[in-house]
Specification:
The complex is a heterodimer of chains A (271) and B (302).
Chain A: H1 19-37, H2 39-43, H3 60-67, H4 69-102, H5 108-115, H6 117-120, H7 123-137, H8 143-167, H9 172-179, H10 184-213, H11 216-221, H12 229-239, H13 244-270
Chain B: H1 3-31, H2 35-55, H3 67-74, H4 76-109, H5 112-127, H6 130-141, H7 146-153, H8 167-191, H9 195-203, H10 208-236, H11 240-245, H12 253-263, H13 267-291, H14 295-299
Helix pairs in contact in B: 2-13, 3-4, 4-8, 4-10, 5-8, 6-8, 8-10, 9-10, 10-13, 12-13
Classes of the chains: A mainly alpha (271), B mainly alpha (302).
Chain lengths: 271, 302
C-alpha cells in the first residue's frame, strides 16, 4: 500500500482521491506568496521600466533610495512613529485587556465593544475625522498626532492578543500570590507578566507593523517634513511607477517576514 | 437576652457591607486600568466621528439642513458609487470564500507540524504591507506585465489584455489582500471540529461526501461567516487598492470621499458619505449578529 492509496481521513478518503485538493491548495498558496515576494527580483532590475524577469541586474534603485534625502527622512519618520506607537499601544492595550479580563463587572462587555470600535469604523472615516479634529488643535503634520491616531488603531489588536493569552492562563496563581501578601501590582509583574511575555512581545511587534504599514490615516494626518514612507509611496504609485518603490518594498517585505518569523519562534517557545 | 445576638448581627451586616464596598472599589480600580486606552479611542475615534456626524447635517449656509443626504438620494452618481462599493465587496467576499475554503480545509487536515509551515503562506502576505502587495499587482497585471506575457506565451490570449486600472485588477488585488482574513478564522473553526464526528458519520453509513456535507460543512459555517463578515466590512471602507488598481474607474465610497475633499473641500458632503458608510457597516454587523452567533469566533469572547 503506497501513499496514494492510504486513507487520509476518518471517512476513508485516500490521498489519491484527495489529490485535487492538494493541487488546488498549493496553487492558492502560490498565488498568495508570489505577489508578495515578486518585488524582490524586480527591485534588482537595471531598467527604468518595470519588467519581469529583468533584462539586466543592478542595485541602482537601492542607491536611489539610500541617496534620497526625501526617502530617508520619510523612513526615519515611519520608524519613529512605529516605535512610539508600539511603546504606547502595548502597555495601554495590555492594561485594558487585563482590566477587562480580571474584573467581573457588568460593564466589561460594553467596554470591550467600545475598545474595538477602531476595527469596526471604516478607516477612511477615522482618517478624515482625525484630519478634521487634529486640524482644530494643530496636531496635523506632527509626529505626536500620528502616534495618537496609530495608537488607537493598534490598541484593539493588542487587547485581542493579550486577552487570548490571559484566557489560557490561570488567574488563580495571582490570587495565591496576593494571599501570600503580594500587592496586585507585584503579583501581576512577578507572576502573570512572565507567563504571558511572549504574547506581549507579539502584540508589540504587531502594533509596530500596524503603524509602519498604515497608509490612509498617514495620507491625511501626516505631511510636510513628517510625511511617512507609505504616504510618499502611495503618491508615487498614483502618479507614475517609480522603480525605487520596488527597492523600498523589498526592504519592507524583509522587515515584516523577519518580524513574523520572530513571533512564530516566540510562540513555539511560549508553549 | 437578645441584645448580644442583635449586636453580632449588626456587626455581620456592617462587615458584609464593608466587604461589598471594598469589592466594588477593587472592581472600579481594576476597570480604571482600561481608562487610558478608552481615552485614546474617545479622542481619535468617537469625538472626530461624532463631529463629522454633526457636520453632515450642516448646509452650505451654516444652518441645519439635510441637503447632503438629499443630494445622495437625488444624484445618480452617488447611487452608482454605493452600487460599485457593494458590488466590489460582495464579489471580493465571494472570491475569498471560493479560494479560502479549500485552502483552510487543506490546512486543517495537515498534521500540526506541516500546518505550521504551510500556514506561513497565509501569514506572510498577512504581515506584509498592503501597499507593497498592491504595487506588486500593479506591475504584474500591467500591459507588458508578467501575467500578460505568460498568458500570451502559453497561448491563452493573443494580444495584451487590460487587467489593471479597472474592475478586474481591483478584484484581483482586493481578493489577495482579504484572503488571509477569511482563512484564519475559518481555519481555527475547522480545527475545533471534533474528528470523532466524522468517524461517527462514516460508521453510520454516510459516504465521505455526505459526511462532509452534513457534518463538516455545517460545523465550519460559523468560521466562514465570521471570516466573510470581516472581509466584507473591510471591503466596504477599503481605499488604497481600489484607488491604485482601479485607476479612477472603480469609484467606491472611500475614493469618492477623498475626491470630494481634494476637489471641493466640502466637509459636509464628505461627512455625510462617511456617515452612510458607517451606518451600512453597522447594519451589516447587526443583521449578521441576528442570524449567527459570530462573537465567539470573532473575538473568542462569548
Amino acid at each position: 500500500m503506497n501513499w496514494w492509496t492510504t486513507p487520509a481521513s476518518d471517512t476513508q478518503v485516500t490521498h489519491g482521491d484527495r489529490f485535487w485538493l492538494y493541487v488546488v491548495a498549493v496553487i492558492i498558496m502560490l498565488l498568495l506568496v508570489i505577489p508578495t515576494f515578486i518585488v524582490i527580483p524586480m527591485s534588482f532590475s537595471g531598467s527604468q521600466y518595470l519588467e519581469f524577469p529583468p533584462n539586466e541586474w543592478s542595485t541602482r534603485w537601492y542607491g536611489e533610495y539610500f541617496g534620497s534625502a526625501k526617502w530617508m527622512r520619510a523612513t526615519v519618520t515611519s520608524l519613529q512613529v512605529g516605535v512610539l506607537t508600539m511603546l504606547v499601544a502595548t502597555p495601554l492595550g495590555t492594561m485594558a485587556a487585563y482590566a477587562l479580563f480580571a474584573s467581573g463587572h457588568r460593564a466589561t462587555r460594553a467596554f470591550f465593544m467600545l475598545l474595538i470600535t477602531p476595527m469596526i469604523v471604516p478607516v477612511i472615516l477615522v482618517a478624515i475625522g482625525a484630519f478634521y479634529a487634529f486640524g482644530r488643535v494643530g496636531l496635523n503634520n506632527s509626529i505626536s498626532g500620528l502616534v495618537l491616531a496609530h495608537t488607537a488603531m493598534a490598541t484593539p489588536l493588542v487587547i485581542i492578543v493579550i486577552t487570548a493569552a490571559l484566557r489560557s492562563y490561570d488567574l488563580n496563581q495571582e490570587r495565591v500570590a496576593r494571599s501570600l501578601g503580594a500587592t496586585r501590582l507585584k503579583a501581576f509583574f512577578q507572576i502573570t507578566l512572565p507567563q504571558i511575555r511572549f504574547s506581549v512581545v507579539t502584540a508589540a511587534l504587531l502594533s509596530f507593523l500596524t503603524s509602519f504599514d498604515e497608509v490612509i490615516i498617514a495620507i491625511f494626518v501626516s505631511g510636510g517634513a513628517n510625511a511617512t514612507l507609505t504616504k510618499h509611496m502611495f503618491s508615487s504609485l498614483r502618479d507614475f511607477i517609480d522603480p525605487t518603490i520596488a527597492a523600498i518594498s523589498t526592504i519592507m517585505v524583509i522587515v515584516s517576514s523577519v518580524l513574523l518569523l520572530l513571533t512564530q519562534f516566540l510562540g513555539r517557545r511560549g508553549k | 437576652m437578645n441584645r448580644p445576638d442583635a449586636a453580632e448581627g449588626g456587626n455581620r451586616d456592617r462587615n458584609a457591607g464593608m466587604l461589598r464596598a471594598q469589592e466594588r472599589r477593587e472592581e472600579w480600580g481594576l476597570l480604571s486600568l482600561a481608562a487610558p486606552a478608552l481615552l485614546v479611542i474617545v479622542l481619535v475615534i468617537l469625538i472626530p466621528v461624532g463631529w463629522l456626524f454633526y457636520l453632515s447635517f450642516i448646509g452650505g449656509d451654516g444652518q441645519f439642513s439635510l441637503e447632503h443626504y438629499r443630494k445622495m438620494v437625488e444624484y445618480k452618481s452617488y447611487a452608482r458609487t454605493f452600487a460599485t462599493t457593494f458590488e466590489v465587496s460582495i464579489l471580493t467576499t465571494g472570491i475569498c470564500i471560493l479560494l479560502g475554503y479549500p485552502l483552510a480545509y487543506f490546512l486543517a487536515l495537515l498534521p500540526p507540524r506541516w500546518a505550521g509551515i504551510f500556514m506561513l503562506a497565509v501569514l506572510l502576505p498577512f504581515w506584509t504591507s498592503l501597499l507593497v502587495r498592491t504595487y506588486a499587482w500593479l506591475v504584474l497585471l500591467q500591459r507588458k506585465g508578467m501575467l500578460n506575457e505568460f498568458a500570451i506565451h502559453i497561448g491563452l490570449w493573443d494580444s495584451p489584455v487590460k487587467l489593471v486600472h479597472n474592475m478586474t485588477g481591483t478584484l484581483i488585488g482586493m481578493a489577495h489582500i482579504m484572503l488571509p482574513f477569511l482563512v484564519l478564522p475559518l481555519y481555527s473553526a475547522m480545527k475545533k471540529i471534533d474528528r470523532d464526528m466524522m468517524h461517527a458519520a462514516a460508521n453510520l453509513g454516510a459516504s465521505p461526501a455526505t459526511a462532509f456535507r452534513q457534518v463538516y460543512l455545517p460545523l465550519s459555517l460559523s468560521g466562514m461567516v465570521a471570516g466573510s463578515l470581516i472581509v466584507f466590512i473591510l471591503c466596504l471602507g477599503f481605499y488604497v487598492t481600489p484607488a491604485v488598481l482601479g485607476g479612477g474607474r472603480v469609484i467606491m465610497v472611500s475614493t469618492q470621499i477623498t475626491a470630494i475633499l481634494e476637489n471641493q473641500f466640502d466637509w459636509g458632503a464628505a461627512s455625510a458619505l462617511g456617515v452612510v458608510l458607517l451606518v451600512a457597516t453597522l447594519l451589516v454587523l447587526y443583521i449578521a449578529a441576528r442570524f449567527f452567533k459570530f462573537d465567539a469566533a470573532l473575538f473568542g469572547k462569548g
